[in-house]
Amino acid sequence: MSKKNLKYLIKRKDNLYEVVIGLEVHAQVLSESKLFSTSATKFGAEPNTQVSLVDAAFPGMLPVINEFCVKQAIKTGIGLNAKINKRSVFDRKNYFYADLPQGYQISQFKDPIVGEGKVILDMPDGQKEVGIERLHLEQDAGKSIHDIDPQSTFVDLNRSGVALMEIVSKPDLRSPDEVSAYIKKLRSIMRYLGTCDGNMQEGSLRADVNISVRVKGSKEFGTRCEIKNVNSIKFMQMAIEYEANRQVDLIEEGKSIDQETRLFDTKKNETRSMRSKEDAHDYRYFPDPDLLPLEVSDEFISELKNNIPELPDDKKKRFIDEFKLSPYEATILVSDIDTAMYFEEVVAKMGKNKDIKLAVNWITGELFAVLNNKNLEISQSPVSAKNLAVLVNLIKNGTISGKIAKTVFELMLDGDKDPQKIVEEKGLKQQSDPKAIETLIDKIINDNREKAIEYKQGKEKLFGFFVGQAMKASGGKANPQLINEILKKKLQ
Amino acid sequence: MTIDLKTVKHISKLSRISIEDEKAKKLAGDLNSIFEFIEKLNKLNTDKVEPLTSIAETTLKLRKDEVKSENIRDQILKNSPNENKDFFVVPKVVE
Amino acid sequence: MNNIISQSLTDLIKNIKDKKISSEEVTKSFIQRAEKSKKLNCYITEDFENAINKAKKFDKKPNYDSKLPGIPVAVKDLFCTRGLKTTAGSKILSNFVPTYESTVTQNMWSEGAIPLGKLNCDEFAMGSSNETSFFGNVQSPIDKNLVPGGSSGGSASAVAGQLSPITIGTDTGGSIRQPASFTGIVGLKPTYGSCSRYGIVAFASSLDQAGPMAQNVKDCALLQEVISTYDPKDSTSIDFKRSHYSEELTNNIKGKKIGIPKEYRVDDMPKEIEDLWQKGIQYVKDCGAETIDISLPHTSYALPAYYIVAPAEASSNLARYDGVKYGFRVKGENLIDMYEKTRSEGFGAEVQRRIMIGTYVLSSGYYDAYYLKAQKVRKLIKNDFDEVYKKVDAILTPSTPSSAFKIGEKTNDPVSMYLNDIFTVPVNLAGLPAISIPAGHDSKGYPLGLQIIGKAFDEQNILNIAFAMEEKINFKNKIADWWIK
After folding, report:
1. Could you say which of C197, C233, C235 has the minimum Cβ distance to residue A292?
2. Is B31 domain-assigned?
3. Interatomic CA distance for residues C9 and C218, integer angstroms
4. Whether complex ipTM tops 0.95
5. Residue of B nearest to A96 (CA)
6. Which residue range is the domain that position B18 belongs to?
7. Could you report the per-residue pLDDT of C438-467, keeping only the tens digit for each?
8. Mean pLDDT value of segment C135-139
9. Helix (H) or strand (E) holding C34
């Protein structure tokens, strides 16, 4: 099943290098309140207004765990086909930083809540399986703001204590494209599950990228560098490109690679060593004595399992089997839960005599184009699934032609108008009465007798001319199929 | 085992407590006598013993996902060593 | 009414309920005593004016159904108190005013108690003599040159010296029982999880427990009844059925089986302590209980394990004192410089020493050899207790290996200071309840205590045994008010 994607290799003189990438994705758990405190998690609040005494680590304050966050982590684990650990332990990761009020982060080190799993990527050259090492729950830190004052750093603790899932992949990724596909797949799964909104602009999804390079065919891993906290797929790809080439150059120059933490500078498009992390490598993990081991029962897990929605891989399979979609079409439709939901609603609203292919073409064609132009998500679509279904049905049952449908669609964009009404009000209904079309065609042949003769003598190209004339005469409303049929008969 | 000056300096760095040489020497002495005492544990074979993870013999209780803490920024910043109504302020951090 | 300050809590409550005395009179009496007792250095922060106002308020609208009606109480300065400076005996928190209240103190105020102020203690409760406090050492009411013990030294001196009728302390390795023993009062360390740790400045989270200190067992039982509640704000708080300790208190301990652990007969234990222990054994027998020789084989490993676990947790718990959010800050050239200067000047020598130990034992490469090993030893110690509790209901030991020592006697020798906790530490490691009661005097007239260790959640049983023994012992504290005049 897993075909090696061998396209991304770095060439220097006679050497070909392979890039080995593992990701630590930090996904913000969708929850109302924080992991260990009851303050809100809303994005964009005024600084330090969503901070409790616990989040700011006041003396004597203690963590109390949020059940929903535990459920969200387990659900995500199920979505990643992973082993759920019935017993997990919270540890303290000790280090000093301005936006880490406790002086430690509560995380899971030895015993994470979720163990090994896997995700399947659809790459152009086939499917690729990426191993998941683990998923654990941890607290987010606050935010340090360096650009308000030249001498000082300002600290906002709103984010301090928000629940994160750290999803650690195995070093299975081999190219920037695979990284992109992997992130998109994780995002898709979590959005299906409702466990993370995947909003990278708001920082809900960020990743630490571990990169090493090795001569192609080598079994040993090279020394890796970790690029911290990259918050867009584009930057991840750029950072990998830069970092992989930097490492290859070092090797080619006979120099060694330092295992270190690096930062991606988005302005200069380069990675550089992070000074502030230099001596912080000894995290002195130990089990948090303020918390007991987290134990979940089989019932707790199976209850969650039973309520897992259909996930992208299953949905794709079903779309192919049930709706006879091509794998390509199915992949596009399932990649985002809102698109899948939209499509399924269109299918449902089309009723019995439906043309699913046509609906798919309209969604991935006209609708996507409009969304793209207007920079809208499908959840904000100006045309509802119900009305799109009506439109597709109007084409299918011959009420309007595909061409007219485009006109109708344009009109629908303004306030999600009912296409049926548009057709009626604007008199756009297709002319499907054979007699009327016959009359119309008779007149055209009569008016263009010479051309009719030329056609009959073999100038077949002229057929198009007659179709065009007929359409024009009908104001574009004549059923093109009928025109074809009748014309053929008359011009014989 | 002995804890040398270098180790003391390293631990003080990790602990974020600055220590001048004089104090470090004294501390090294103290730590050595304390660890000499602690090393007594090495006499005990614990290979087959499960470590104790929590003395409270119960499992972690889970709380409902409810927002109960309101905006208490004034309280949060009240004891702050600097005067700023919106933020905690520290010397510039270079990343 | 005369001699208010020498009345027990039980008597004060009765007299207030009978309207023989007012809360204001009681409060003022203890305040006057405190004013005359500054030499003891019990208080870090006094809140006398407010206390009098609150007492007046109570008298105007008394609630006699509450358990501590109008009773003034000073508490160890490790409990966060809303609007009242809370320092933990440290320079680093010397200006810190919490906007919140610890659960245990809240429980007392809710039952009508009136806060007098905050009592001195070893810095972050790290010490056995109350000599590590940034606010100076506390003197023992027993004798001018004696330490009151620690870390709840201010609390012990305040109760023994009659500055507060009762108090609460915290006990991580003996910090309630040892000072209680040194000053001739009663101190209970409850089962881990019995009293909420919410709002208590943390020292070592897996060992810390708040507990009552009082002049007698009954007062101690009543205070325990007030402060011990299940608290969802503390994940280690345990929801068990708590007795009405004072109501159910009985001196009938007939047929109880009391274990006498041979491992507590340590080398160089003074004969006075051995004699006291033998006397204690006789007392419980006189009360109709049976004594059984038992073995707790891993006892001698408790103290080394404790000096790994407690500093390790402390090194992490004290990381939050970094000068960023509250407390003392020293300006620095950059963030790290600020951290290092703040913590170097803000913490005293003993606290720094323990942070260093803790950091070291958790640091890369040493975790297994120290911290993990210590947690395994802890398991063995707990197993020892579990095993003997199949045969006995409680265990009787001396509280400390000696009577109170002199101020300055052990300050330059941390290990000999630590050895003072040898009998109290195993109890914390195993999370058990234990009570220290005054049981006699040594040749110099200094108090000596006996410790009764119980099964988890079996506070009632050890209170009963202590209550029965108290009657037989009939201890009288020899306090001659040396500090007055």
Report:
1. C235
2. yes
3. 9
4. yes
5. B16
6. 5-43
7. 999 999 999 999 999 999 999 999 999 999
8. 97
9. helix C23-36
Query: C380 and chain A: CB distance < 8 Å anywhere?
Result: no
pLDDT digits 0-9 by tens, A383-392: 999 999 999 9
Q: How many CA atoms lie within 13 A of C124 on its CB side?
A: 31
Convert the pLDDT of each residue in A40-96 to its tens digit. Answer: 999 999 999 999 999 999 999 999 999 999 999 999 999 999 999 999 999 999 999
The contact set of A with C (CB < 8 A) is 53, 56-65, 92, 94, 96, 98, 101-104, 153, 155, 281-282, 284-286, 289-292
Residue C92 in tokens: 């680093």
Residues 6+ positions from A396 with CB-CB distance below 8 Å: A353, A354, A355, A358
- The whole-angstrom separation of Cα C347 and Cα A95 is 18
Cross-chain Cβ contact B60/A150 below 8 Å: no
- Which residues from chain C sit within 8 angstroms of residue A286, using beta carbons? 312-313, 316, 362, 367, 371
Q: Is residue B54 part of a domain?
A: no
- C332 has a pLDDT exceeding 50: yes
From the options 1.20.1250.20, 1.10.10.410, 3.40.50.300, 3.90.180.10, give the CATH code of A434-490.
1.10.10.410
Q: Which two tokens mark A49?
A: 């207004």
Q: Is residue B60 part of a domain?
A: no
Which of chain C's residues have a Cβ under 8 Å away from the Cβ of B52? 375-376, 378-379, 382
Q: Give domain status of residue B20, yes or no.
A: yes
Set of chain C residues whose Cβ sits within 8 Å of the Cβ of A92 = 316
Domain ranges of chain A: 9-305, 310-425, 434-490
Chain B contact set for A146 (CB, 8 A):
92-93, 95
Q: Active-site residue among C151, C152, C315, C399?
A: C151
Map tokens 């410089």 to a residue.
C337
Of A432, A479, A436, A485, the C-alpha closest to A463 is A485
Task: Identify which of C313, C324, C362 has the shortest CB distance to residue A289.
Answer: C313
- Number of domain units in chain B: 1
Q: What is the CATH number of the domain that holds B28?
A: 1.10.20
If DSSP codes are grouped into helix, strand and coil, which group holds residue B61?
Answer: coil
Helix (H, G, I), strand (E, B) or coil at C483: coil
Task: Judge contact between A365 and A328, C-beta under 8 A.
Answer: no
Strand partners, C168: C212
Is C8 annotated in the active site?
A: no
For residue C452, the surrounding DSSP H or E stretch is strand C447-454
C76 is catalytic: yes
- Answer whether residue A2 shows pLDDT above 50: no
Residue among C250, C272, C218 nearest C437 (CA): C218
Query: Using only C-alpha atoms, what is the Rg of chain B?
Result: 23
Q: C151 preceded by cis ω (within 30°)? A: yes
3-state secondary structure string across chain A: CCCCCCCCEEEECCEEEEEEEEEEEEEECCCCECCCCCCECCCCCCCCCCCCCCCCCCCCCCCCCEHHHHHHHHHHHHHCCCCECCEECCEEEECCCCCCCCCEEEECCCCCCECCEEEEEEECCEEEEEEEEEEEEEECCCEEECCCCCCEEEEECCCCCCEEEEEEECCCECCHHHHHHHHHHHHHHHHHHCCCCCCCCCCCEEEEEEEEEEECCCCCCCCCEEEEEECCHHHHHHHHHHHHHHHHHHHHCCCCCCCCEEEEECCCCEEEECHHHCCCCCCCCEECCCCCCEECCHHHHHHHHHCCCCCHHHHHHHHHHHHCCCHHHHHHHHCCHHHHHHHHHHHHHCCCCCCHHHHHHHHHHHHHHHHHHHCCCHHHCCCCHHHHHHHHHHHHCCCCCHHHHHHHHHHHCCCCCCHHHHHHHCCCCCECCHHHHHHHHHHHHHHCHHHHHHHHCCCCCHHHHHHHHHHHHCCCCECHHHHHHHHHHHCC
pTM: 0.92
